[in-house]
From TrEMBL:
HAMAP family given in the database record: DapA
Catalytic activity entry: L-aspartate 4-semialdehyde + pyruvate = (2S,4S)-4-hydroxy-2,3,4,5-tetrahydrodipicolinate + H2O + H(+)
List of residues binding pyruvate: 51, 207
Positions of the record's site feature: Part of a proton relay during catalysis: 50, 112
Pfam families per UniProt: DHDPS
Record protein name field: 4-hydroxy-tetrahydrodipicolinate synthase
Source domain of life: Bacteria
Species assigned in the record: Pseudoalteromonas fenneropenaei
Length: 294
């Protein structure tokens, strides 16, 4: 039975990594511990996003991961990513997930094709129409190769389940444009380091990579950012968070979590590999900084 959550109580969502063992199989024992750690911190959990290497998994693996985490019955809300290029496949994925006790979706823009306003509107309209769950649209032009136009949100405003936008373009002016285009839609930062700035502009929270490594500390960082009464948050966190993006995410965070003992191996699915990161000094320094932060 699905537990009811007020999503406004969860300003931090952890884009959970997918742990693998040395044989390239999903490590469900480690996954259990990661879910428990996020639950203890009170963070919402996002499954199968880009940090979770969702598109590197087979459909069977995706289904098994979502079913497995649902069966753990964590006492925090679960969001599942919907992303790819084939609309029929995404609708089938929604149909599967709609049968499970999850609480929200992250809807990515279609990859590679670079649709314009009409194509984007049609894509998201179809996805939003195939579920009643709250949906967060994901603007990440660095990965999808196309930026979501603010007017797309206006075009979709008739959908009552259009709950939020994850803004990860790194451009504060885009944030403002989205706010004006759809004032009823909550905007979440998709960039850990920019959270204090986005909070000042009216952000509702953060979808985080850093919370994988530092769940409690990142939750406090978000609380302080939203409170707006703690100076120097940006300075304190910038260097530490930037260490997680020196090469493609989630390579650095998986390497760090392996160093921390959270992951048995830093293994990633090809084409990503931890061998891209040949110097981990910045990660170690960042870990010391954040763990000492108060």
């Amino acid at each position: 039975m699905k537990t009811s959550f007020d999503l406004s109580d969860y300003p931090l969502w952890t884009a959970l990594v997918t742990p693998f063992d040395a044989n390239d199989q999903v490590d469900y024992d480690v996954l259990t511990r990661l879910v428990a750690e996020q639950t203890a911190a009170g963070n919402g959990i996002l499954l199968l996003g880009s940090t979770g290497e969702g598109l590197a998994l087979t459909l069977a693996e995706q289904q098994q991961i979502v079913q497995f985490v649902c069966d753990l019955n964590p006492q925090v809300p679960l969001m599942v990513a919907v992303g790819g290029i084939n609309l029929h496949a995404q609708l089938a994925w929604l149909a599967f997930c709609n049968t499970l006790p999850i609480h929200a979706y992250l809807l990515g823009s279609p990859l590679y094709a670079k649709p314009g306003v009409v194509g984007q509107t049609q894509w998201f309209d179809a996805l939003l129409s195939h579920t009643e769950l709250p949906c967060m649209i994901y603007n990440v032009p660095g990965r999808s190769a196309v930026a979501i136009a603010p007017e797309v949100l206006t075009n979709l405003s008739h959908h009552n389940n259009l709950w939020a936008l994850k803004e990860a373009s790194g451009d504060i002016s885009k944030f403002e444009a989205f706010r004006k285009a759809a004032p009823q839609v909550k905007v979440f930062s998709g960039d850990d380091g920019l959270m204090p700035y986005f909070a000042q502009a009216g952000a509702s929270g953060l979808v985080s990579v850093a919370a994988n490594a530092w769940p409690q500390q990142t939750a406090e960082f978000v609380r302080r950012s939203l409170a707006g009464t703690f100076p120097n948050l940006f300075t304190t966190w910038t260097d530490a968070v930037n260490s997680l993006f020196t090469v493609a995410n989630p390579i650095p965070v998986k390497v760090l979590m392996h160093q921390q003992g959270k992951l048995a191996t830093p293994h990633l699915r090809p084409p990503l590999t931890h061998l891209e990161l040949d110097n981990t000094a910045a990660l170690s320094a960042a870990n010391d900084t954040i763990l000492a932060w108060n």
